[in-house]
Amino acid sequence: MEAAALADDDEPDLFGTETMAELCARQGQAGRAAAIYRRLIAASANAPAAWRQRLAALEKVAPSGPPPTPPPIPREALRPVPAPAPHRPALVVRQPVRSGQVVHADGDLVVMAPVNPGAQVVADGHIHLYAPLRGRAVAGAGGSSEARIFCLRLEAEVVAINGVYLAADDMDLQWRGRAVQISLRDGACVIEAL
Predict the structure, then answer these.
(1) Top-level CATH class of 91-193?
(2) DSSP secondary structure code for residue 69 in this structure
(3) What residue segments make up the domains of the chain, in order of their start?
(4) For residue 131, which of 123, 140, 139, 121 has the smallest C-alpha distance?
(5) Quick one: which of 89, 121, 123, 126 has the fewest CB in 10 Å?
(6) What angle do CA 130, 131, 135 make, to 5 degrees?
(7) How far apart are CA 25 and CA 22, in angstroms?
(8) What is the mean pLDDT of the segment spanning 75-93?
């Protein structure tokens, strides 16, 4: 019996319930809904009249014959999708960065202690400074113009994003000692309040 139903409908009987038939109908799959009702009626000696009525309604709207063949997929769409870059956890520095030291992170950098004058923190991604920045900070060193520097107290000698620098002499004095974020906009470093 099941083999005959499969041959008639070319659908395996995975979820042959009235609920599934109605779900298929609501999703615009009238042919599948009709196939489920046919199997339900064939399997039940006392099939409700409502099933037969619903089957008749579905058969009026269900396309006859096999479903249309989808258009071929363009060759360029078949290229393998590159895997996303693996997540790199942020480098966290808990000790003060002293004059002459350079700390470099391949991804984001989180600094929990002061960056003293003459010290430099560099990250390919964002830099988060939860202490005074008195030295230099370079974000986006790996070429990211979307990188930002977040700083709780700006007293920097130099800040840079993706090779665009802003020296202390060029910074507006209103930002000194304040919590700021520094981003790259229209080819220039822009300082804004946090």
Answers:
(1) mainly beta
(2) P
(3) 2-61, 91-193
(4) 121
(5) 89
(6) 120
(7) 5
(8) 78
